[in-house]
């Protein structure tokens, strides 16, 4: 049907022409799925006429201010609230977040913040608890590592700052760092840090 653009009904004798376009999307690496035989290659090659790659939000943080403003406008109208945008500290906290839930998570965070917001601007205090530790210290969630720093020191700094970012939540810090909680605790032990 995809290739020939025509079908025959069950029990029918005539072919019916179709004028359709198939749009398919996935959050997986499709070519890898084909290589691993998790997706039929013939189906992939029939569908793969034009590919659009949309990176996750964490890889396009520059889009975050525009997306945030779009969601603020939408939910302000929907909730009949006079909210114009987010303040600078709030934006820094949003930009420092890893966004595991992608744009859907941003949408829900902004909707919640707008509902609890009491002024015309969403502030950092209007965000969920796990955002309140983010964006502090005036560095926008970034760390600077001078050239010549050992890998052990870089790793220690990254772990320490990520734990600060999560307000001491080591399980969440391990998720952000992409390691298991056990690995994180082992590294903290190796660095001589407190496991509690």
Give the helix/strand layout.
Layout: E1 6-8, E2 15-17, H1 30-35, H2 41-47, H3 64-78, E3 85-86, H4 88-96, H5 102-116, E4 121-122, H6 129-132, H7 151-165, H8 170-177, H9 181-191
Parallel strand pairs: 3-4
Antiparallel strand pairs: 1-2
Helix pairs in contact: 3-5, 7-8, 8-9
Give an overview in words.
The chain has 196 residues and is mainly alpha-helical. The chain starts with 5 loop residues before the first strand and ends in a 5-residue tail after the last helix. It folds into three domains: 42 residues, no CATH class; 82 residues, Helicase, Ruva Protein, domain 3; 41 residues, Homeodomain-like (Arc Repressor Mutant, subunit A, Orthogonal Bundle), CATH 1.10.10.60. The strands form two sheets. Strands 1-2 form a two-stranded antiparallel ribbon. Strand 1 and strand 2 form a beta hairpin. 46% of the residues lie in helices and 5% in strands. The longest helix has 15 residues.
Q: Can you list the strand order of the major beta sheet?
A: 1-2
Distance between the termini: 60 Å
Compute the number of strand runs: 4
Beta-strand content: 5-15%
Fill in the CATH topology of the largest domain.
Helicase, Ruva Protein, domain 3
- Main sheet record: 2 strands, antiparallel
By secondary-structure content and strand pairing, the structural class works out as mainly alpha
Provide the CATH top-level class of the largest domain.
Mainly Alpha
Uncertain residue ranges: 135-140
Order of helices and strands: EEHHHEHHEHHHH
Helix content: 40-55%
Mean pLDDT: 86
Radius of gyration: 24 Å
Distinct helical segment count: 9
Label the CATH architecture of the largest domain: Orthogonal Bundle
Q: Specify the overall morphology.
A: flat
Number of domains: 3
């Amino acid at each position: 049907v995809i290739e020939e653009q025509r079908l025959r009904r069950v029990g029918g004798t005539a072919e019916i022409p179709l004028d359709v376009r198939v749009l398919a999307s996935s959050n997986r690496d499709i070519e890898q799925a084909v290589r691993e035989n998790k997706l039929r290659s013939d189906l992939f090659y029939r569908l793969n006429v034009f590919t659009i790659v949309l990176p996750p939000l964490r890889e396009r943080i520059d889009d975050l201010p525009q997306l945030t403003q779009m969601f603020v406008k939408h939910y302000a109208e929907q909730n009949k609230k006079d909210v114009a945008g987010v303040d600078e500290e709030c934006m820094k906290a949003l930009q420092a977040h890893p966004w595991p839930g992608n744009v859907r998570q941003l949408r829900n965070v902004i909707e919640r913040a707008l509902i609890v917001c009491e002024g015309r601007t969403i502030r950092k205090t209007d965000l969920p608890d796990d955002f309140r530790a983010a964006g502090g210290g005036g560095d926008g969630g970034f760390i600077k590592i001078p050239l010549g720093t050992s890998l052990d020191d870089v790793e220690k700094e990254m772990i320490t700052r990520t734990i600060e970012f999560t307000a001491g939540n080591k399980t969440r810090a391990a998720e952000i760092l992409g390691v298991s909680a056990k690995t994180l605790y082992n590294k903290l032990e190796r660095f001589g840090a407190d496991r509690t």
